Amino acid sequence: MKLIxxxxxxxxxxxETLSSLEPIFVVVFAAISTALIPMLILYYLTxxxxxxxxxxxxxxxxxxxxxGMLAIFGMxxxxxxxxxxxxxxxxxxxxxxxTIFLAGWGFMPMVFANVVNSVFVFNILTEAxxxxxxxxxxxxxLSAVLANHPLMTLTRIISTIGLVWMAFIWTFAVKNxxxxxxxxxxxxxxxxxxxxxxxxxxxGF
Length: 205
Known about the structure:
By secondary structure, this protein is mainly α. Helix content is about 85%, strand content about 0%. The chain has one domain.
């Protein structure tokens, strides 16, 4: 709760200890939450396909889900390195270890956004299956539904809000890890945030 109400004080205390494993757990939860929507889609697809196709779909789908989860850990490390070196370039004094630990807290908004979006996607898929029956579901049909449903616009808005919230948290993380001013820490937090946003745009959110 302190992270939400008073992030500056929260990170001031966290920077003094760095003994907690909680930021790592936050990233783990973010990775798990990222898998929710792909797992929902995979479930609905495999439940409507022949057994032979289902087994192959389950294998390749599971590999894709695991890859997406691992990508979150990669995002954590890469964004932490960007935060650290940008902060260092503009006069920061903190260590990379401090930056990595404190940056982990920035993934908390992703957990909330992914869980909320998963609820929306579940409702969309349930509605789609009710309209045509599970035996008629195809990958092309689900792709069209998810591309054109009005609620998907809302999920993109929620994801964007989560990203802005992540940048806000990173601002105070960098501020206290590197003893920077709010203006400079905002600049440092903006770089990896923009990188993530560009990645999302090219991936199609």
